[in-house]
Description:
By secondary structure, this protein is an alpha/beta fold. Helix content is 59%, strand content 7%. A five-stranded parallel β-sheet has the order 2-1-3-4-5, sandwiched between helices. Helix 9 links the parallel strand 1 and strand 2. Helix 2 crosses helix 5, helix 4 packs across helix 5 and helix 9 runs parallel beside helix 13. The longest helix is centred in the last third of the chain and has 24 residues.
Amino acid sequence: MEIMPPDTGNRDPQTGTLIRLRGLYPSLKTALRKVADVILRQPEMVIYASVNEVAAESTVSEATVMRFCRILGFKGFQDFKIALAREMVITAAPLHEEVGGEDVAAIIRTVFQTNRAALQDTLEILETGAMQEAAQILLNARHVMVVGVGGSGPAVTYAGNRFLLLGLRASLYTDFSLMLMAASLLSREDAVLAISNLGTTREVVETVGLAREKAARVVCITNNSLSPLARTCKPALVTASREVTLPEEAVASLTCQISILDALFALMAAAPEAQARATLEGMEKALITGGVRRDPAQ
């Protein structure tokens, strides 16, 4: 399957180059990964290198390097280098220090720095238009189905709790069998919010596929904009947590998912539809209360 560049919506495609590359990395083919490895390992060298030199360092053809740049959303290698140079102007301190088992302050600092970096990176690449579209889809849906498995389970529960505060009809699923049964009952008036860090989880991808067959709208939160899940959902809300190699990085992934859910909640709560719904519910309660007071039995 041909890998297509991610839709950048209203976001400048020449921002967060290395951030987006880390997210896309798991979906890249072998030759493209060789180019990515060189860039992630030696970004300063790439800025001053020619396309021939990068190709030679990566042991791939020049055409592969050019294709790599287009997948990231650039017209060519020169545009990619300019964006990379801009990004390299801001240098970040290393997140993971050599800490001993007794160095409590350093461990705590590392966790906070990891979360902060993940949130900053996510904000850098998050598309405003995609967030607005997702908020409208969820708010206007007759019923919202939230799905996720494994490490995304806590985010699923959190989303459900937030949606209930808005008066939305929402159901939460972390079991594959229940997901499929629920998805088979969806219609075009319903929506699915799928949460998966890698975007390759079979249970979630298959559930979303079935939901689309039922004409339901599908939204996802994932770390990989080229993943099968992201290509199936519209819109796809992309986080920027790094590849999980340490426990604090797994927490950073969840932190990014929760922050996107909080932002969605804020957008939905501020929407005119939510205000109208709150007013209508208030009127219904008043009518019910008034009816009770007029009951002859009282």
